[in-house]
Amino acid sequence: MNKKKQQQSTGQHTVKHSLTDAPKEVQLAVDLIYLLETNKVDPELALAALEIVKTDLQAKLQRKSDE
Questions:
Q1: Please, which residues bridge with residue 14 across strands?
Q2: Where are the alpha helices (DSSP H) in 1-67?
Q3: What is the dihedral of CA 30, 35, 38, 43, to 10 degrees?
Q4: Residue 33, H or E segment
């Protein structure tokens, strides 16, 4: 996971945000975006692939709930 800290100035205080403090789904999303961007995957292709992945994961969840 990317552990870079981002600083945001709020008046006299500086608030530090860390990806490690983010929810797991945000961490995974950032990793996936990084993977797609570094491999220069066309956004339309990525969205089509993500729809397939979403359908597959939904089917797995359905099968799990049917057990």
A1: 9
A2: 24-38, 43-66
A3: -90
A4: helix 24-38
Phi and psi at residue 12, in whole multiples of 5°?
Answer: -85, -15
First and final C-alpha spacing in the chain = 33
pLDDT tens string 7-66 = 444 544 333 467 889 999 999 999 999 999 999 999 999 999 999 999 999 999 999 999
Q: What is the DSSP letter of 19?
A: G
Structure tokens at 52: 């397939």
d(CA 59, CA 42): 26
So what's the pLDDT on residue 15? 33
